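Box 3.1 A note on notation
Throughout this textbook, protein chains are presented in two layers. The first layer is the amino acid sequence; the second is a token string describing backbone geometry. Keep the layers aligned when reading.
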Amino acid sequence: MDAAAQERSEHQQRLDDLYRDPYPLYARARRAEGLTFVPELDAWLVARDADVREVLLRSDDFSSEQALRPDVMPAPAAFGVLAGGFAKRPTVVSTDGPAHRRHRAPLNSGLSAARVTALRPYAAERAAALLDGFAADGRTELMASYARRLPGAVIGRLIGFDPADVPAAVHGGHQAEQLLFRPLDEAAQLAAAEDVVTLQHLLDRYARARRAEPRDDLCSAMVAALAPGDGELTDDQRAELVSNLQNLLIAGHLTTTALIGNTFHHLLRDDRKQWELLCARPELIPGAVEEAARFDTAVQGFRRTTTRPVTVAGTELPAGATVFVAYGSANRDEGRHDDPDVFDITRPPARHVAFGYGAHGCPGSQLARGQLRLTLELFTRRLPGLRLAKDHAVEMRPTMIHRSPLALHLTW
């Protein structure tokens, strides 16, 4: 290995170590004066709860345009494959002001409390069916057998997918995340890019079908909101719809997948004391949902870019500076939460920012909470003897986006 390759490998290892456990860095940043610049993130770290909330409310000063800047730049060959799909367009995550409100409007209605409540019987049915598939086995790898499958089925139902298309859509969403946030060799990049293009063409078919024959689903609502009228969709409209449907799909299943995995990991650690308490007192389930979201936040944060010279926490930043707004750090802030590094499902309710804050607060937060809640209700009732498998150590995915166990082997 030449010197340059060795340096890249060492840098990636440092980055992976940081991503697997960012909490020590967060703690140092919260204690430091002003903001801390983190070379691995190529950004100023906004770590304290008050500063995170301030930045998220100052959308005129902190642009969301680069909120999801890729951690990895795909190889030219992968870009060649992606050219067979649809060009990236702004979405609800990467816009502010009127553009953000335009993209968010159909999500607010499509993810309303009434729609989420109406979806609960379907979600409960799917959850029970998934559990039935492995309950008699005495062991399972939860991420593959359940955590990646329930959220995909639920968001697919909400968008309006035929159930037969859900596995391919979920796989394509996972591959899109891998391509942009994990270092892959070129062969894996090409395979991921092909899966992303396949997903985009699937989403385009749904958008065009809903234009021709609208239904009572979120895909139809997005088509009506983002491409009003009844004529054939233009190429630009199709590209915008594909980008926004892809963003919805990924956020709708990967975030909840991570939340489920993190919750079971922490409930079952430390001699299962929290799990046993939850089984004995199911009325604690709503609090357990909030504590899990706070303690190990699935989406650790998003980037923002300064639009003009600004000052945050006494640190002066020029226009064009990148900050990483760390939800995961704010949720461990000693100034907001007592004993923040302790996972405690009896913790009194306290406001956290696991689902964002301000204009960019997650519109699907109640959908995610609902799936975790019914999952805990189901598993505490049917598998009270659940425990972490002793023959498999739990390793976290090295990422700030959809932080979760790589695998979670359980026995009962």
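The beta strands are 36-38, 43-46, 62-63, 139-141, 301-306, 310-312, 315-317, 322-326, 387-388, 409-411. The chain has a mean pLDDT of 95.
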